[in-house]
Amino acid sequence: MSINESMDVNNGGGRLSLVGGAGVAVLVGLSVAAVLAETWKVLIVGWVAFAAMAAGTYLGARATETDPKRLVWGYGLASGAMVTSAAMFLVPQAIGIAGNGGIAPQVGGIGIAAGIVVGYSGHVIGHRLTHRDLPMDVTTAQITAHALSAGLIIGLVYGSMPTLGLLLGLAIVSHKGPAGYAAARRLRRNGKPVSALLLPAAGVGITAIPTAALPVPEIAALNAVVFGFAAGIFLHVAMDFLPVCDAGSEIDQVCSLHEESHELLDRLRVHAVGSTVVGAAVVVVAWVAVSP
Q: How far apart are alpha carbons 17 and 8 in whole angstroms?
């Protein structure tokens, strides 16, 4: 069965796909377990990720055209927040755990490098799949795989260090809104049901909640690599979401629908920088506000 097929309804854009409904059902069931286990932080992060992507999907499905300025600001705010969060909360943990454990801090750096390389490799291989005739919607499959892996890492991080604040997780999933919007626009243009995106919307919570409940071994080298790997993965995702206003980019494709597209692209570069700076500043200000 294709990832976008429904059981007894057609695949119209307003219909609920089987996998989308199943994803929500699994998230609801795991949420009950999270409440019983009192793993509140991953529960909140999972549902914020779901709400953000669901909202982005709804807006993308209803939009008759894409506003390039809003697209730039959506990507810029999210990427700026993610870069700053990973750099502030995960990189110091990776280096610090290694140092406090009596091992070389470079071990944490190895985890960071591995995360960036693995994230890049997965992105490249995933893009190659878009050129193959597969029995599933590649857009939905790629986003689902990304959401499940992100949830896995978020669960490991909060399970390893439950004292981490919510700011990290919320900033990490901030890209779910613009990601859902862009994916919904692609699916709508291809005549496919956007409700399938409910699966990746629920994906973060589906893997984060059970992973956070797993026992974490007190091994400094392992934890340093885990935090470093998480930082590397999220830094890669953040850099992938940086708004690119160059020829051939997604933003350029949107601008090509407007008159004076080259001039518009030049103006959007200023918005790209501004939105990224604002996204980063929001995390810093929020951290200062909640710090004791």
A: 10
Q: Quick one: angle between helices 106-129 and 220-241, nearest 10?
A: 40
Reported as a single tens digit per residue, the pLDDT across 162-182 is 888 888 888 889 889 888 888
Cβ neighbours of 131 (radius 10 Å): 8
Collapsed DSSP state (helix, strand, coil) of residue 273: helix
CB count within 10 Å of CB 188 equals 18
Q: Which two tokens stand for residue 7?
A: 């059981």
Tell me how far apart the alpha carbons of residues 106 and 89 are, in angstroms, rounded to a whole number. Answer: 17
Most confident of 118-122, 208-212, 236-240: 208-212
What are the backbone dihedrals phi and psi of residue 209, each rounded to the nearest 5 degrees, phi first? Answer: -65, -55
Tokens of 25: 């059902």
Q: What is the pTM of this model?
A: 0.81
* Phi, then psi, of 2 in degrees rounded to 5: -65, 155
pLDDT in tens, 219-266: 889 999 999 999 999 999 899 888 887 766 667 666 665 556 667 787
The residue whose two tokens read 């992060």 is: 45
